[in-house]
Design brief:
Blueprint lengths: L4 E9 L6 H17 L4 E3 L17 H16 L7 E10 L2 E10 L2 E7 L11 H4 L9 E5 L2 H7 L3 E5 L2 E3 L4 E6 L1 H4 L4 H7 L4 E6 L7 H14 L4 E9 L7 E2 L3 E4 L2 E5 L8 E9 H7 L3 H9 L6 E3 L7 H4 L17 H20 L3 E5 L4 H22 L3 H10 L11 H8 E7 L6 H14 L2 E6 L1 H15 L12 H29 L8 E3 L5 H6 L20 H14 L5 H6 L17 H5 L3 H12 L5 H11 L17 H17 L37 H21 L1
Parallel strand pairs: 1-2, 1-11, 2-3, 8-16, 9-10, 10-11, 17-18, 17-20, 18-19
Antiparallel strand pairs: 1-15, 3-4, 4-5, 6-7, 8-9, 11-12, 11-13, 13-14
Helix pairs in contact: 1-2, 11-12, 11-19, 12-14, 12-19, 16-17, 23-24, 23-25, 24-25
Protein name: Glutamine-dependent NAD(+) synthetase
EC number: 6.3.5.1
Pfam families: CN_hydrolase, NAD_synthase
Length: 722
């Protein structure tokens, strides 16, 4: 029967697309750490050899040949022998591209297991790059290329859906999306006696997602029993996504080990010792036994004499099963701080640039972007104190490193790699916003530039006056709507050009070794992008936007949390300030307001965004939903914070939202790449694919149907009041 105490390992790896040798080095390091901890089985993330986000590079034959070359190097490295390995990579088999797990032992391949259910929703496009394996529990032969055949001592290995049988147990593999399907492979595996199941994932971060992921992973063994190993990527591997790690080991529905969700460690290995007897006992339920006995889902077992639980280990009384633990889940404000901070550090160090620049407006959005950069600096300095060698090397490259002295505080690091710039206008910019920007810069330590753009604005405006003999005026000065917009957009676009100008020259002007340039960060939140409440090619146009898929309410939660946790009392002023673009002159009777300009509140924008994307509602269906949710006639119950509107008001708001969404949709095609944080992001690149030229919504059949429904509702309401 063999021993019953098994030490297993899973990991978070910060891989980078097509970083062949770097990715391989991190894989090998994780194997070494797993072996040092006594593990006999190691599982890594999905597509760990290439990096998950290679996208259309998966169409290139080089990607498949280089992956095999990296596998060959790994198999020849004897330091990786003596442990079962579950490696993620793409495989070209009979001219079909597969997303595979390669199960190896002592320099030999035991099985190539292709992914069966591909992720093809939201940000995922696996069906564009791979073919699913459509034959459950079937295998065939894979013809090895010469370099692998020589190592294998054979020309073929098994390819397909099978499991590995050791003297004491059996383990099988499923990949990422397969866990989330209604009939996941682990169900049939468990009924067929497989006791250890590995899951290799490329699962990206969104706010509040971890709890859902945890429940699904824990549920995988809560009903059927077993040991479940979850591996994931962690970090930015070259795309808009942050992979949030959280490698974990679950036994019979209980977490016994959990890795970090956010970290600057390139390699993090999670190990646990599990007792296989606990799995056997957990599966003693009669109903479970009857289902297993009558199941026709029988897996081919590939035999190996390698012991996962050597009998000698049972005599080692120092070895004991790892105890269950409570899952660690960060509150949403902390998720924003940590995900944004870790993502920005990966992007900065891998881009080879000199730092970041943020245009500060004195409002909460640009404030949040700046505080996320400050969070990055805090995370980096914590890693430096912990002795993280890679982080220390990156800090040395980015900072003035003289006489072996590194920055000692987040503020010192911030001052070297982060610039904030306030670009004011004498008539439009208030003393309050200028002061708030200055106070924030002082608190976080950024290098701050305070300037006015009036001269540039007047010169550009004069170009129109001199050319067409017409002087545009603001609305408060008697100008038309088009004149007002022209002058607002002119200021906004001057700020974008100015931000890039300073971003390119400041590292040289400040004497940074090697010069270089700063990456410009954007600060348009998800609601403003969805509504189109921004100027095309203004400061929303940047290199990266860390808050581009976060709504105003969550940004306020983040700033309120950071005020206390980061000890930044100046943030209180940002929380109480009225959101304003400050693109129109301030008068005694008028101060521009974002929500007044938009004709809806930020809370309403969030609701519209969620119903449009997550609930998949068009204008008519959204009206049908909100006319009940926001009904002025409803009785308020505990927890009900929705507004009270008449049916006509609801109709007007829904129409207004879709009208502005449609006419501004073209702005999404040039939207700055944003860190993906929400499932209703309007990102046009790959997440929210829509046209950008719509027929007028006010003439549409959808709006006519709203009017018909409104008429029916009003008649019914009127009859009730008689």
């Amino acid at each position: 029967m063999g021993g019953q105490l098994v030490t297993v390992a899973t990991c978070n790896l910060n891989q980078w697309i097509l970083d062949w040798e770097g990715n391989l080095a991190r894989i090998i390091e994780s194997i070494h750490i797993a072996k040092a901890a006594g593990a006999r089985l190691r599982v890594g993330p999905e597509l760990e050899i290439t990096g998950y986000s290679a996208l259309d590079h998966f169409h290139e034959l080089d990607v498949f040949s280089h992956s095999l070359e990296m596998l060959s190097i790994l198999l020849q490295d004897k330091s990786t022998h003596g442990i079962l390995l579950d490696i993620g990579m793409p495989i070209l088999h009979r001219n079909l591209r597969y997303n595979c797990r390669v199960i190896c032992l002592d320099g030999k391949i035991l099985l190539i297991r292709p992914k069966m259910w591909l992720a093809n929703d939201g940000n995922y496009r696996e069906m564009r790059h791979f073919t699913p394996w459509m034959r459950p529990r079937e295998t065939e032969l894979f013809h090895l290329p010469k370099m692998l055949a020589e190592l294998q001592g054979d020309t073929h290995v098994l390819f397909g859906d099978a499991v590995i049988s050791t003297p004491e147990t059996a383990f099988g593999a499923e990949t990422c999306e397969e866990l989330f399907t209604p009939k996941a492979p682990h169900i049939d595996m468990a009924l067929d006696g497989v006791e250890i199941i590995t899951n290799s994932s490329g699962s990206h971060f969104t706010l509040r997602k971890l709890d859902t992921r945890l429940q699904l992973i824990m549920e995988a063994t809560r009903k059927s029993g077993g040991v479940y190993l979850y591996a994931n990527q962690q970090g930015c591997d070259g795309e808009r996504l942050y992979f949030d790690g959280c490698a974990m080991i679950i036994v019979n529905g209980d977490i016994v080990a959990q890795g970090s969700q956010f970290s600057l460690k390139d390699v993090e290995v999670v190990t646990a010792t599990v007792d296989l007897k606990e799995v056997k006992s957990y599966r003693a339920a009669i109903s479970r036994g009857l289902q297993a006995a009558t199941s026709n889902a029988k897996y081919q077992r590939i035999q190996t004499p390698f012991e996962l639980a050597p009998e000698d280990d049972d005599a080692d009384i120092e070895k004991r099963p790892t105890l269950p633990m409570q899952p660690r889940i960060h509150p949403v404000a902390e998720e924003i701080a940590l995900s944004g901070g870790c993502y920005l550090w990966d992007y900065l160090r891998r881009s080879g640039t000199a730092g970041y620049l943020v245009p500060l407006s004195g409002g909460i959005d640009s404030c949040a972007t700046a505080v996320i950069v400050y969070s990055m600096c805090r995370i980096v300095m914590d890693a430096v104190k912990e002795g993280n060698k890679q982080v220390i090397e990156d800090v040395k490259r980015l900072c003035k490193y003289t006489e072996g002295v590194l920055p000692k505080t987040p503020q010192e690091l911030c001052n070297q790699i982060f610039t904030t710039i306030y670009m004011g206008m004498k008539k439009q910019s208030s003393r309050d916003t200028r002061q708030r920007a200055k106070d924030l810069a002082e608190a976080i330590g950024s290098y701050h530039v305070n300037l006015d753009i009036d001269d540039v604005y007047e010169a550009q405006k004069k170009l129109v006056v001199d050319t067409v003999n017409f002087e545009p005026r603001f609305k408060v000065e008697g100008g038309t709507v088009q004149e007002n917009l022209t002058l607002q957009c002119l200021q906004a676009r001057i700020r974008m050009v100015t931000a890039y100008e300073f971003g390119q020259i400041l590292p040289t002007a400040r004497g940074r070794p090697g010069g270089g340039s700063l990456l410009v960060l954007g600060s348009a939140n998800v609601g403003e992008s969805l509504r189109g409440y921004l100027t095309k090619y203004d400061c929303s146009s940047a290199d990266i936007n860390p808050i581009g898929s976060i709504d105003k309410a969550d940004l306020k939660r983040f700033i309120a949390w950071a005020e206390t946790d980061f000890d930044l009392p100046c943030l209180r002023e940002f929380l109480t300030a009225v959101p304003t673009a400050e693109l129109e002159p301030i008068t005694e009777n008028y101060v521009q307001s974002d929500e007044a300009d938009m004709g809806m509140t930020y809370e309403e924008l969030t609701i519209f965004g969620r119903l449009r994307k997550l609930n998949k509602l068009g204008p008519f269906a959204m009206f049908q939903r909100l006319v009940h949710d926001w009904s002025i006639d409803r009785k308020r119950v505990e927890g009900d914070t929705a507004p009270f509107y008449t049916p006509a008001q609801v109709a007007e708001k829904v129409k207004r939202f879709f009208h502005f969404y449609a006419i501004n949709r073209h702005k999404m095609t040039t939207l700055t790449p944003a860190l993906h944080c929400n499932d209703y992001s309007p990102d046009d690149n790959r997440f929210d694919l829509r046209p950008f030229l719509y027929p007028p919504f006010w003439k549409s059949w959808s709006f006519k149907r709203i009017d018909m429904e409104l008429e029916k509702i009003e008649k019914r309401r009127a009859s009730k009041t008689k």
